[in-house]
Each structure stands twice: as structure tokens, then as C-alpha cells.
């Protein structure tokens, strides 16, 4: 099957492919057979209509079109292999010649992965922060656990520092109540202002159960986010919090361990594992950044444009669901340094561009090194996604089959293995000169000791009071969304 390749640019080629009729014949026979099984012609049994009759009734052109449609894809794929081209998009196909009985010729223009040489990963050296003392982190986790299991005693006195209050919040503007920005049964601790409305902590001090106070503040959630309003807080309960004793009985209550010492040791291991994982993530990002700095290649314009548009749409949807504009998001996000919307979107575009370049680099490594995917690795991916999505492995498999994601997910595994190999080849030391192990054990997820939530956080979430009781945006994960980590750059947003 003769073919030629014309390089239109470093990232786009034009393939010209000839299909001799000898190669087209199996597709012609299939087309005749399928048509014969679909039509009813007097005098002929279904499926037994001769080709000449089909030509007379429906025209030779119909059959040729069906045959050509069936022949183009395998011919195109063969031409790609011969040209050693890796497509990044769907081709633009045009039939340029059709000589019945002789040959069919078509052209295919397609964006391809640019050709470049991988850098010497063993020459990459980077430094990350040394692991800090983790004692304080362990103590903070223990404090959270004690607070989670604290008991409260209702008091008949004025609220003071450290008291746990239950309050109702009513927001109004110009004397008109705003139901969407009001809430009941909100739990808060006096003196802990995190996530609360400005002025709320001061307003509740000195109030007894049944007493109210009105103050002005800026709403921080919902459709009225950023607007000034009058907030009336009514205290319904004043309670004193009593933390459980830190003893073996407490350890047995909240964990699988018999003693506080054993529980503390396990927490220390979890904290250390998490710290090492964060250290590895920092090193991984720096290694990938260094690798990208050593290769020079163009990204196909159309492919990049589609990626940037998809990314912008994704983030815009997330902001809209959170009731935010870019401007209000920037005002509240502590980890964003963009001064305005234009700067924000410019940063998003830059991160997306780098993510796409990283994907191309990893794909090049995968192909050059023929990185395989084992059945066990694929099964582990299925199980991991089932856990993340809180569904069953079978449902994940069904989704994969329904949306034809198998090849995509396999490539995701390959990219992860490629990144791991690149990081293993590089030299990483910490700020104290010690080598960094790039394959640390993942931290064990323990429900009681790994990610405890405070009672007030749970109550806040359950009450749905983000308008008045939470500083954290409903889509707080957006801050990470447009800044993909190196290990996540292979993943695209699934919309199915």
C-alpha cells in the first residue's frame, strides 16, 4: 500500500496513501454482503442478492463509498507507522483519486507529536527542603482527635473564650431578610475565628442563651458573596468543652492500639510518610521542570488551543458552581498571586501549556522505552478509582467500556511509570545534603488517626452555611485544578 509523507511543519504532516483495488476487494465484498442482508428484492432471498443487482438497484457508488470508508482507517494507520508519526488529533481526510477497478487515493493531514531527543535524566540534579521536625504535627493531630471526642456541658452564663456555642444566623439587607444567607444550628468555638464571618466572634462574646446581637459584615459564600449585610446572631446554647484525658483508655477508644505510646508511634509513622510523600512530590515537579527545560519542541497550535479552551471552560464551570467570579475568587484565595483576571488566565494557560509539554515528553519516553502495562497494574488502577469514587470496581469497568477509556487509562499507567523512572534516574538531595529516596511508602489511611475532622467542621458542612459560616470556597479544590502536579499531568477531565 504505497504512501508518501509531506512535512507541513514540525508538528503537522500530510500523508498521501494509495489503496490498490486488490486491497480494497475484502471491503467491497463486505459492503455487498451487508447491503444484501439489509434489502428485500423480489426474486432473491435476503442476503443472497448478487452484486450486479445491487449495483443496478443502488448504484456502484454506494458500494464503493462503504468499502472506501472501511479501508481508509487501516490504510491510514499503516501509513502512520511507515512515516513514524504519532498523531495528536483526528486527521482531515480527503479522497483525491478514485479509479474504479484500479486504485483509490486519499490524503490525511494530521497534527503529530514533534520529534525530539530525550534529555539525559541521570544528569538532572535538584534539591528539596529537608524534612522538618514532625513532633508539633503529631501533637496537633492528637489535639484534633481529643477535640473530636470532646464532651460539652451546657452552661447558664455569658459566653467566654473557649466556650462552644450553638447559634442561629440571619442576614438582611435594607431590612429584608436573605434566606439563602441565613442558617440555624451553627456550632462555633469562641476564640477560633477561622472560617467565620468578620465580627462574629466579637459579637457572641458576653451573650447568654436566648440573647442576640446584630453587626455588619461581608458575606463570604453563596449568591451574595462579597456583599455587605446586617447579621443577627442568636445564641441558643452556651456549653463548656471538656477534652478527654490522654490515656490508654482514650487510645483504645479511638484506635486499634492499647496504649497512648503505640497510638503516638503510629501517628508519627503516618505523619512521616505524608511528609516524605510531599517531599517526593516537590522533587518530582522540579525534575520534570528541569527535563522540560532541556528539550525544545513546538506544541501543535490547534492541539494546544483545544487544551487551553477545555481548561478554561473547566475552571469557569467550577467557579460558576461555587458562585464565584475570577475577581471574587482572587480576593479570597490565599495561594493565588495573580493581580487580576487577565493575569489569572495567563497563569492558567501557562500551566496548561507546561502540562501538555510534560505529557508529550512522558509519551516520548513511553514509546522509546516500550513501557508495558501489566494486568496487575491495570487492576490496581481500577481498584484505586473505585475507592476514590466510592463505587464498585465493576461500575468503574462498566464506565471504562461504555466510554472506550481502556487505551487512555493504560497510557495513564505508562506515563506514571515513565515519570517514576525519570525521577529514579535523577539525583535528588535535601537542603542538608542528604539523598532523597524517590519511592517512599504511601501513608496509611486510618480513619481515626489520619484525617480526623472536628465536630464543628462536620456541623458546619451539614448545616450548609457557607454563606455565613465558612471562609472556604465550595470549590476549594480549584486552586489545585489549574496547577496540575507532575504525576497528574496525564489525566484529562472526564465529561462522560
Architecture overview:
- A hairpin with a 2-residue loop joins strand 1 and strand 2.
- The protein is built from 16 helices and 12 strands.
- The radius of gyration is 32 Å and the shape is elongated.
- It is an alpha+beta fold and 496 residues long.
- It starts with a strand and ends in a 15-residue tail after the last helix.
- The protein has 3 domains: 109 residues, 2-Layer Sandwich (Alpha-Beta Plaits), CATH 3.30.70; 217 residues, Orthogonal Bundle (Trigger factor, domain 2); 92 residues, Roll (Chitinase A, domain 3).
- Strands 6, 7, 8, 9, 10 and 11 form a 6-stranded antiparallel beta sheet that branches. It has a 4-stranded antiparallel beta sheet with strand order 1-2-4-3. A two-stranded parallel ribbon has the order 5-12.
- The C terminus is likely disordered.
Into which percentage range does the β-strand content fall?
15-25%
Low-pLDDT stretches are 441-496
Radius of gyration: 32 Å
C-alpha termini separation: 37 Å
Strand-helix topology:
Blueprint: E1 3-9, E2 12-20, H1 21-38, H2 51-58, H3 60-83, E3 92-99, E4 103-111, E5 125-128, H4 135-148, E6 151-154, E7 164-173, E8 176-177, E9 183-189, H5 200-204, E10 212-218, E11 228-242, H6 248-254, H7 260-293, H8 301-321, H9 326-332, H10 341-369, H11 375-388, H12 393-402, H13 406-425, E12 427-430, H14 455-463, H15 466-469, H16 478-481
Parallel strand pairs: 5-12
Antiparallel strand pairs: 1-2, 2-4, 3-4, 6-11, 7-8, 7-9, 7-11, 10-11
Offer a concise description of the structure:
The protein is an alpha+beta fold.
Characteristics of this structure?
single chain, 12 strands, Chitinase A, domain 3, six-stranded antiparallel sheet, Alpha-Beta Plaits, 16 helices, 496 residues
